[in-house]
Design a protein that fits this description.
- The complex is a heterodimer of chains A (431) and B (314).
- Chain A has helices spanning 16-38, 54-66, 69-79, 89-110, 131-160, 164-177, 185-188, 190-227, 245-271, 278-285, 288-305, 309-312, 317-337, 339-342, 345-369, 383-406, 416-430; strands at residues 6-7, 410-411.
- By secondary structure, chain A is mostly helical.
- The longest helix of chain A is centred in the middle third of the chain and has 38 residues, at 190-227.
- In chain B, a hairpin with a 6-residue loop joins strand 4 and strand 5.
- Chain B has a domain at 39-255: Alpha-Beta Plaits (2-Layer Sandwich).
- With 314 residues, chain B is an alpha+beta fold.
- Chain B contains ten helices and nine strands.
- A three-stranded mixed sheet of chain B has the order 8-1-9. Chain B has a two-stranded antiparallel sheet with strand order 2-3. In chain B, strands 4-5 form a two-stranded antiparallel sheet.
- In chain B, helix 1 (2-27) packs antiparallel against helix 8.
- The chains are: A mainly alpha (431), B alpha+beta (314).
Chain lengths: 431, 314
């Protein structure tokens, strides 16, 4: 793909938000250290009744759905042939990469015996009946695919780099140590540049096959995230326990993916003071309601078929959460059906937030809220447990912030004219 | 073009939905037959006197192999008694008293049910939970286990327990003394120790016969059924009781094993890995065709007129 579609965001890296996010990340890391020294019970409220807490529910089950922006964009661009969205994909892939990578990391924090994880690579230990096996292998594979998909951004930068920062650092170190400055470091690192230049066209040639793999794998494991709870027929509330769990999770991750791509674009344009990509976003938003309509239809049809509509409207504890999830998704979709509202960044933002919240609440409902292991068991995450999740999310945002300032990730602002037009849009938006 | 690609897109969703539906249809047809030659235990709640000798025997015999330990009670600063409140990361079996009134009460013993079609074995991603085909014993291997606790989520009886407060934790559950008492003496420690004969050890068919003869011999004494005979596809740990089983903490369960349904869906989607491969090839085909239509995938797209030319051009 053309690398001229992207540009680096030139701005300071050390901002106040950088410091805040770094602090949160460090607190999270410290608590993770406690978890490895004293056991999971020392930092979490998980119990034998609720063996999966907020780490699995948010970081893995919900976090990977929120990281489906790259997946949704790839379907849009390469399968539905909307190449004009291409400039937006790299930032979507970056968020996906952080989302999936850190989901994998938090699994390693959550599992009790992570040193045995090598068994996933030993065929005799494979247990193909287990949805967990499928999820684990697919998530590992997809994280690798995301890294490969992102590699062009790194290679382009390596090709052109002059190692200025590294040179400055070395100069400073040499000066400190009172040693004589050797030849410029860039000369010695020419091999790296050559390698990057050699690798890039070759990667470009096979990239489409990797990208398609990056569409296949999430289709598999996002549905399997739903299949994970199929075994809990006695514990998951009938409002959510259905054979359609895999299908519902798959569609759910798609509409969350598009919504999060919209949110990410709006937020980064706002934070980095770039013009909003209104035209692209409203085009993308026109897909979401169709997905949610299918999803809501399956949900209602399935409830009616199983005779659970009464339970859904009974207004008890479970029914309230169900209705909240349902209304958030339905409300957001209704807003997006209106062509006029889709032209407005503010309405786009609001409706995307509603849909992401509703879609995420669905996953919380399935993994935690609707999960009842029997009398006497209760779960609410401990502070330390929450702070570990917060730390991981903080690191995601931190990483995104830093990488877009180092590598060409954000869409290039093509010409002066386009920029002015976009600025006009943004100004109109604010009035 | 527009319509065609949208159709392709919905095809993916449609295909997944269809496979799922197919899975749903197929579930009812096949069901699991219990293997009665496997070994298990029969617990007769009407014979139990609550002496807890089985609990202490279990800990004595399995403490090293099973990573069990004593649990101190809050009222007991000197640690004189082992006082587990429930099955836990240090306790594999437990006697509890259920008291409805002064006349209506019963003891109950908890431990692994050794299901004929165990959910924990079905969900374990790395085969750390296994069911021995000959003995029917559901066993756990800590050297394989990654500690994901999916077995805990899956078990309808909430049997597998995790060691929450250890840096090197493991899952704890009954393995019928497979590597300890059964190996040395041919009987489980709890059954060997029980002074009142409340715990019987043997083949499932003999246990069922014994249970049925007790039911027939004393019709008024028992609730007229054997818990575990049919629940979740049959269990090798069977129960007789004078009180309703669900009052004693044994859940009301269907006869179909939950694992049959979930495996059916998983198998339907991933049968022979055909669906994922087909999906990948179809998507590759569509993506390559789209790339060709936009100026070719193989050529280096130098300059500003990238794949987005359709919309960038004025």
């Amino acid at each position: 793909m053309s690398h001229d579609e992207y540009q680096r965001h030139d701005a300071r890296i050390l901002t106040p938000s950088f410091i805040v996010l770094l602090t949160l990340t460090l607190i999270g890391l410290a608590l993770i250290a406690v978890r490895f020294i004293k056991g999971i019970g020392a930092v979490s409220n998980m119990s034998d009744g609720y063996p999966w807490g907020i780490w699995i529910t948010y970081d893995v089950a919900t976090g990977t759905a929120i990281a489906c922006g790259g997946y949704a964009m790839a379907i849009l661009i390469y399968i539905r042939n909307r190449m004009h969205y291409h400039p937006m994909i790299r930032s979507a892939i970056l968020t996906s990469m952080f989302g999936y990578g850190l989901a994998g990391f938090s699994v390693m924090v959550d599992v009790g015996r992570p040193w045995n994880a090598y068994n996933f690579f030993i065929p005799s230990k494979w247990q193909v009946n287990s949805a967990m096996f499928e999820v684990a292998v697919c998530v590992m594979a997809y994280t690798t695919v995301l890294l490969l998909e992102f590699l062009p951004a790194v290679l382009t930068t390596l090709e052109k780099t002059e190692w200025r920062t590294l040179q400055l650092l070395l100069d400073m170190l040499y000066a400190r140590m009172g040693k004589e400055r050797p030849e410029p470091i860039g000369d010695r690192l020419d091999k790296v540049k050559e390698l990057a230049a050699w690798l890039k066209p070759r990667l470009d040639r096979v990239l489409i096959f990797i990208i398609v793999l990056g569409i296949t794998l999430p289709t598999m494991h996002q549905s399997s995230l739903g299949s994970l709870l199929l075994i809990a027929s006695t514990k998951l509330h009938p409002l959510w326990y259905t054979g359609f769990l895999p299908l519902l999770f798959l569609i759910n991750c798609m509409f969350i993916g598009y919504s999060i791509a919209i949110l990410e674009s709006v937020i980064s344009c706002y934070a980095f003071k770039r013009p909003f990509e209104t035209k692209e976003l409203s085009g993308m938003a026109s897909i979401i309601p169709w997905l949610t309509v299918i999803w809501l239809t399956v949900v209602i049809g399935d409830l009616a078929w199983r005779g659970q509509l009464g339970a859904a409207l009974s207004l008890d504890f479970y029914s309230r959460f169900f209705l909240l999830e349902f209304c958030l998704v339905a409300g957001g979709s209704l807003l997006m059906f209106s062509g006029k509202k889709r032209e407005s960044i503010r309405w786009l933002f609001v409706s995307a937030v509603l849909i992401v919240l509703g879609g995420a609440l669905y996953r919380f409902n399935v993994y935690l809220i609707g999960f009842n292991p029997g009398k006497g068991w209760h779960y609410f995450p401990a502070l330390a447990e929450l702070l570990i999740t917060v730390g991981i999310v903080a690191f995601e945002i931190l990483g995104y912030q830093v990488v877009v300032k180092i590598l060409p990730v954000l869409p290039r602002l093509h010409t002066r004219q386009q920029l002015d037009a976009a600025a006009g849009h943004a100004a109109a938006e604010k009035e | 073009m527009e319509k065609a690609s949208r159709r392709d897109f919905f095809k993916i969703i449609g295909a997944t939905g269809a496979t799922l539906l197919a899975g749903r249809e197929a579930v009812a047809s096949e069901s699991h037959q219990p293997d009665n030659e496997t070994i298990g235990m029969l617990y007769d709640a009407t014979r139990c006197v609550g002496c807890k000798a089985c609990m202490s025997a279990c800990k004595r015999v399995n403490s090293d192999y099973g990573s069990l330990s004593y649990e101190q009670a809050r009222f007991d600063p000197d640690g004189l008694w082992d006082a587990p409140q429930d099955l836990s990361g240090s306790t594999r079996t437990l006697i509890k008293l259920f008291k409805e009134s002064d006349k209506q009460w019963s003891y109950i013993k908890y431990s692994c049910m050794h299901c004929q079609k165990p959910s924990c074995v079905s969900v374990c991603p790395v085969s750390a939970m296994t069911r021995d085909k000959v003995t029917g014993t559901v066993d756990y291997n800590k050297d394989t286990c990654i500690g994901c606790r999916y077995c805990q989520v899956a078990c309808a009886f909430n049997i597998p327990k995790f060691q929450w407060n250890k840096a090197i934790p493991q899952i704890v559950k009954c393995d019928l003394c497979k590597n300890t008492n059964l190996l040395n003496k041919g009987i489980t420690a709890c059954a060997e120790t029980c002074p009142t004969g409340a715990i019987t050890f043997g083949k499932r068919k003999d246990l069922l016969a014994e249970a049925n003869s007790r039911l027939n011999g004393n019709p008024g004494k028992y609730v007229n059924r054997i818990y575990g005979e049919k629940e979740v596809g049959g269990t090798n740990h069977l129960y007789l009781s004078g009180m309703e089983f669900n009052k004693l903490g044994l859940p009301v369960l269907k006869e179909a094993a939950p694992a049959e349904f979930s495996e059916k869906i998983q198998h339907t989607i991933y049968k022979g890995f055909i669906a994922p491969v087909a999906l990948y090839s179809t998507l590759c085909f569509i993506a390559l065709r789209n790339m060709k239509g936009n100026g070719g995938a193989d050529e280096k797209q130098a300059g500003t007129s990238g794949p987005g030319e359709k919309h960038d051009e004025p």
